[in-house]
């Protein structure tokens, strides 16, 4: 029987080739899109789930509150936290983790370096995260020699099959003047890609043993700890926080939370120090749209299949008269559904496989799990497609199989069915277009927001501004800068601890607000030479810029040696520039007077500028100067069109001043644009899938108009005989569909508005959603629907009435 069902299904597919092709195209697009998006969702959700102790490992996060209100949450804790935690019996092990890149000179060629992902940590990391050591004894640290463990893939790529354990390699340094040597003490099996702890090299060092400060002073580190098996994480959090509140002498003690390892990648929007992270919100959006696209494709199949019901009524009637029961008829139609899904599924997998490189490029990292490299995922996808074919084919099968044999042979069956059936079909089309409208509205809003983020005035001119990445200048920074300024193409230059797009400044403090002693104002501090404000192009609103002409404006490096009470008092009065916002919030009206709250003496007020990205509001800023800074980035204001010449000059000077050091030059405007990569990718996603959803929705309308025109083909003929024009017939059918689309618009607009308003709340600088956004989206949807309806109804209207009425 099954063989017979398949044979008949294949014949029907070939017989109705046009409808079959439309069905296959719709299902193929829906399935391929769903497979592609589901791959991203599964891969992102799989992060850090392969570690043996994944349920026991947590990251220590710091929570800063005032009067119960959250001020700041950080993916770090104060230095010394490891020494405090190790005394708790619940803690099995603790380690610090820092991630960065080092340019290793694997080929031993001067000036050459290969960018390598590094995890800097303590030996306990190897046990906590069960890193598989293939060769060597990495736990045996060598005194005064940096020791590293390298991945198996690096060994294969750069060491020609030999075992490099015991060898040393050098780097292309960013900070030291001479290359650093590293001793290779082991080789580890590559860590899977689906982890936020990505590393090709593990740089090991002894744990620090400083005592946790009672005043909450010190530097921050990322700490990971593993609790003993079956320990309650919440109870331990409470125990440690209670201990710390008794231990610290700070006025506002921090609190700490243990973030589960498996949550770190997707749920760390606050993680400023975390190098690799995803977004749970983005994942929900991707998953929802993948499901909705598949639903649209399945609705298309249902509409197109029921539209052809009138062509099957005689066949169904004859089968029933010959003894076929309803179960056999349903089985036959489910076989047809299964065949459509089988063909579409095969084509979808082909498209999916071809699209994998594009997916990898979109998410910007290799995929650890795909439907083609995981047998379990492949079987799950096959099972899902099979189940979907049954669920999708069941409604048309039930509808067609209930036909009365006598009525079908007399051709009295109406493919539109009962009023309830018509309601269901129109409801499905409304649902399709509602989804398409919401996605289209989202695309327009995201496009506007991305345009705002990339074009909004940030308070300084980022064009024609180059930067050299953060470096140590070996007391030659001022000389290098002066040589560079001899170029006619370099207008201004400054060595600064702050670089646009890299954090908000060198440090920040919270000071008491003059308006309310219970409120605090967050102030960012930037340290540079005296030329930073002018290099950025800031405008002076009051007072003067910092200048070397004023002896006390910039402190020499020697000032910081052997600090005493006199120097500390002087530091609190050092000349500074402040932004207009800082002056307003702290009510500073008089310059050249020491301000206790700022611990500085404002000598000038400059225009406001954004020190962070536009997701946050501009902060009050204080700029202070040092002579010949030894650490920082170099910012250069150049003449328009001279970028290539300036870069050539920089390279020439770099080889002279720092022949062994890494040089990384960036255009500041590129760095700023890069901050919004996530939004740009979201726009690309919405653009692509809004086009797909509109196409699939148009197919749905096509199915419904085919059903209606085939049912009313004789009515069209009679109307033409009575003098109706093609235009009036097209308008007759268009009116019904306009009502359906109008309902979709009424549903979609409030849903789209609410969803995008919620999304925009994450941005301090955001657009206002204008009425024309909804008007544009509605116009596009109406235009596509009316074009589809118009073409099909006009096609039927042009049929010769004699031909359509000849059976009457």
The secondary structure category is alpha+beta
Q: Give unreliable regions as ranges.
A: none
Oligomer: single chain
The total strand number stands at 24
Could you estimate the helical fraction of the residues in percent?
40-55%
**Number of helical stretches of at least 4 residues:** 24
Please describe what this structure looks like.
The protein is of the alpha+beta class and 808 residues long. The chain contains 24 helices and 24 strands. Strands 16, 17, 18, 19, 20, 21 and 22 form a seven-stranded mixed sheet that branches. A six-stranded mixed β-barrel has the order 4-5-10-7-9-8. Strands 15-23-14-24 form a four-stranded antiparallel sheet. Helix 9 crosses helix 11 (375-401). The two termini are 39 Å apart.
List keywords for this structure.
alpha+beta; 7-stranded mixed sheet; 6-stranded mixed beta barrel; globular; 18% strand; 24 helices; 808 residues
Quick description:
It contains 24 helices and 24 strands. The protein is an alpha+beta fold.
Chain-wise SSE layout:
Elements: H1 2-15, H2 17-45, E1 57-66, E2 69-74, E3 77-78, H3 81-85, E4 91-105, E5 114-121, H4 124-128, E6 133-136, E7 147-151, H5 152-158, E8 168-171, E9 181-188, E10 201-204, E11 220-221, E12 223-227, H6 233-247, E13 255-260, H7 261-264, H8 280-307, H9 309-321, H10 326-363, H11 375-401, H12 405-409, H13 419-455, E14 465-472, H14 477-485, E15 490-496, E16 507-512, E17 520-528, H15 532-536, E18 540-543, E19 554-555, H16 565-571, E20 575-579, H17 580-585, E21 601-606, E22 621-626, E23 631-638, H18 643-657, E24 665-667, H19 668-674, H20 677-711, H21 713-721, H22 726-760, H23 771-797, H24 801-804
Parallel strand pairs: 5-10, 7-9, 17-22, 19-22, 20-21
Antiparallel strand pairs: 1-2, 1-12, 1-13, 3-11, 4-5, 4-8, 4-12, 6-9, 7-10, 8-9, 14-23, 14-24, 15-23, 16-17, 18-21, 20-22
């Amino acid at each position: 029987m099954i063989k017979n069902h398949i044979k008949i299904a294949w014949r029907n597919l070939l017989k109705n080739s046009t409808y079959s092709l439309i069905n296959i195209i719709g299902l193929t697009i829906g399935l391929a899109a769903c497979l592609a998006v589901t791959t991203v969702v599964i891969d992102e959700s799989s992060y850090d789930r392969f570690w043996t102790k994944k349920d026991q490992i947590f990251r220590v996060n710091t929570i800063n509150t005032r009067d119960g209100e959250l001020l700041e949450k950080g993916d770090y804790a104060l230095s010394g936290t490891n020494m405090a935690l190790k005394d708790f019996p619940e803690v099995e092990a603790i380690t610090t983790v820092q991630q960065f890149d080092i340019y290793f000179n694997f080929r031993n060629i001067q000036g050459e370096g290969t960018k390598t992902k590094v995890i800097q940590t303590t030996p306990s990391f190897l046990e906590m995260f069960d890193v598989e050591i293939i060769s060597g004894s990495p736990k045996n640290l060598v005194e005064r020699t940096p020791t590293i463990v390298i991945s198996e893939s690096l060994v294969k790529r750069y060491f020609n099959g030999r075992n490099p354990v015991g060898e040393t390699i050098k780097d292309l340094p960013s900070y030291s003047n001479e290359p650093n040597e590293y001793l290779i003490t082991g080789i580890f099996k590559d860590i899977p890609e689906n982890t936020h702890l990505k590393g090709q090299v593990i740089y090991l060092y002894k744990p620090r043993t400083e005592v946790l400060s009672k005043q909450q002073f010190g530097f921050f580190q990322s700490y990971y700890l593993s609790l003993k098996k079956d320990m309650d994480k919440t109870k331990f959090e409470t125990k440690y926080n209670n201990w710390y509140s008794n231990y610290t002498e700070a006025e506002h003690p921090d609190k700490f939370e243990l973030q589960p390892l498996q949550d770190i990648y997707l749920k760390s929007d606050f993680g400023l120090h975390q190098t690799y992270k995803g977004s749970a919100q983005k994942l929900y959006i991707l998953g929802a749209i993948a499901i909705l696209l598949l639903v649209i494709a399945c609705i298309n199949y249902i509409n197109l299949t029921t539209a052809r019901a009138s062509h099957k009524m005689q066949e169904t009637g004859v089968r029933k008269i010959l003894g076929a029961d309803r179960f056999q008829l349903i089985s036959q139609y489910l076989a047809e559904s299964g065949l459509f899904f089988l063909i579409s599924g095969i084509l979808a997998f082909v498209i999916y496989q071809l699209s994998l490189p594009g997916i990898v490029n979109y998410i910007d990292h290799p995929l650890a799990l795909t439907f083609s490299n995981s047998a379990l995922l492949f079987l799950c996808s096959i099972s899902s497609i099979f189940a979907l074919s049954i669920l999708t084919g069941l409604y048309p099968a039930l509808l067609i199989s209930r036909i009365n044999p006598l009525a079908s042979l007399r051709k009295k069956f109406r493919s539109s069915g009962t009023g309830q059936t018509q309601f269901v079909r129109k409801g499905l089309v409304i649902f399709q277009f509602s989804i398409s409208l919401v996605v289209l509205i989202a695309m327009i809003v995201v496009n506007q927001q991305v345009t705002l983020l990339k074009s909004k005035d940030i308070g300084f001119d980022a064009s024609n501004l180059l930067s050299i990445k953060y470096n140590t200048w070996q007391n030659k920074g001022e000389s290098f800068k002066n040589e560079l300024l001899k170029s006619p193409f370099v207008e201004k230059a400054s060595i600064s601890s702050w670089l646009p797009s890299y954090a908000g400044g060198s440090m920040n403090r919270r000071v008491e607000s003059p308006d309310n002693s219970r409120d605090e104002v967050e102030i960012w501090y930037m340290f540079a030479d005296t030329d930073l404000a002018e290099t950025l192009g800031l405008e002076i609103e009051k007072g003067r810029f910092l200048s070397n002409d004023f002896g006390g404006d910039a402190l020499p490096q020697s000032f910081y040696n052997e600090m005493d009470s006199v120097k500390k008092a002087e530091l609190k009065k050092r000349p500074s520039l402040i932004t207009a916002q800082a002056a307003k919030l702290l009510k500073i009206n008089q310059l050249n007077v020491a301000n206790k709250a700022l611990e500085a003496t404002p000598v000038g007020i400059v225009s406001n500028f954004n020190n962070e990205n536009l997701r946050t509001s501009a902060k009050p800023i204080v700029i202070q100067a040092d002579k010949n800074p030894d650490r920082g980035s170099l910012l250069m204001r150049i003449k328009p069109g001279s970028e290539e010449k300036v870069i050539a000059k920089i390279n020439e000077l770099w080889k002279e001043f720092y022949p062994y050091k890494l040089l990384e030059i960036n255009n500041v405007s590129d760095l700023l644009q890069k901050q919004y990569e996530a939004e740009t990718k979201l726009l690309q996603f919405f653009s692509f899938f809004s086009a797909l959803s509109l196409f699939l929705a148009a197919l749905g309308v096509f199915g419904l108009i085919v059903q209606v025109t085939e049912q009313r083909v004789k009515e069209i003929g009679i109307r033409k005989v009575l003098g109706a024009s093609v235009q009036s017939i097209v308008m007759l059918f268009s009116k019904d569909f306009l009502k359906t689309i109008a309902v979709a618009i009424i549903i979609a607009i409030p849903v789209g508005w609410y969803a995008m308003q919620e999304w925009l709340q994450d941005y301090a600088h955001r657009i206002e959603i204008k009425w024309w956004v909804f008007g544009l989206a509605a116009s596009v949807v109406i235009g596509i629907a009316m074009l589809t309806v118009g073409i099909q109804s006009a096609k039927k209207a042009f049929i010769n009435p004699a031909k359509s009425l000849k059976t009457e």
